[in-house]
């Protein structure tokens, strides 16, 4: 008998919620709606994605980027539901939950991108640091819609979906990023239902790699959106040109297959088909997401006592998360891939170009052609 993908454990909130018998929405739809109607979400419209906000109305901001990430995340859910045999009628990833995580994933990030985040972290180092993802969790659990510092009272699954990192600041040595604040330990304990991490998952990279399936989908959707769309903005701005790409490629040791990507990208630019070509690539990146079972922990305990796994059990939503091992009788769970089933990493070229865009930073080259005027 298949277990349902979501139970009361997932929809539970830290503070008791008043019952709303007339509300037609699911708990995850409420999470999503609250994000959309908060000032923290609206403020994304003036936060830099690649180009300074207001420079032109064509370029993406953190707000338009978040909307694109949400669409890609929902599409990944729909494709997995249609194509993956591990999902049954009661075992589908909730698109509303993934959409909520995608819309919220950048609300804690400051202006000026990662440069602003690093600067704030240096300034806040004596007080526990600053980290954009930790700040997102703080907004959700302390600030949004709250006079009592309870935040928007998000569901456990929603908190887990935005919790990319599970290591406290004090557990690392002078970290630059990838941590949560020390005073967020109760939030982490709530997400994990008080369960401790096994010794095989020490603080840092190993522990942070354990993410819920919704968090992994959100992260893949984010990578897809920024890797492709930031390149499109750079091309439209005249910052990425065929001449610069070809000169860059000459200085690299590129494999033949990667070199062909460069040739195709330059051909796309010359034929003015950037938008359609990169939009088609988004579909390819969505199709690259897969899902299969993997054992997560090397310290099995009897089923029903926490971190253990049962043989022959059915898939469960808590893939890549310690929650998959918290509830009695839960199985080892599947996880989405971050690679296509065959072929090279599709981000090889676009990620390198994107790093060049961000490394250069403003001021951008002049003259700066407006997209509408060529």
Could you characterize what this model shows?
The protein has 374 residues and is an all-alpha fold. The chain is built from 15 helices and two strands. Strands 1-2 form a two-stranded antiparallel sheet. Helix 4 (62-83) crosses helix 11 (213-236), helix 5 (95-104) packs across helix 8 and helix 5 (95-104) packs across helix 11 (213-236). The longest helix is centred in the middle third of the chain and has 24 residues, at 213-236.
How far apart are the termini? Answer: 61 Å
- Average pLDDT confidence is 76
Provide the structure class: mainly alpha
Compute the gyration radius: what is it? 21 Å
Roughly what fraction of the amino acids lie in strands? under 5%
**Low-pLDDT residue intervals, each spanning 5 or more residues:** 296-374
Which shape, going by the Cα principal axes? globular
Largest sheet: 2 strands, antiparallel
Helix content percent band: 40-55%
* Number of strand segments: 2
Number of helices: 15
Order of helices and strands: HHHHHHHHHHHHHHEEH
Numbering strands along the chain, what is their spatial order in the largest sheet? 1-2
List the SSEs and their pairings:
Elements: H1 8-11, H2 27-36, H3 39-42, H4 62-83, H5 95-104, H6 113-123, H7 132-143, H8 156-162, H9 185-191, H10 205-208, H11 213-236, H12 242-250, H13 256-270, H14 274-287, E1 291-293, E2 334-336, H15 348-360
Antiparallel strand pairs: 1-2
Helix pairs in contact: 2-5, 4-5, 4-11, 5-8, 5-11, 8-11, 11-14, 11-15, 12-13
Describe, in short, the structure shown.
The chain has 374 residues and is an all-alpha fold.
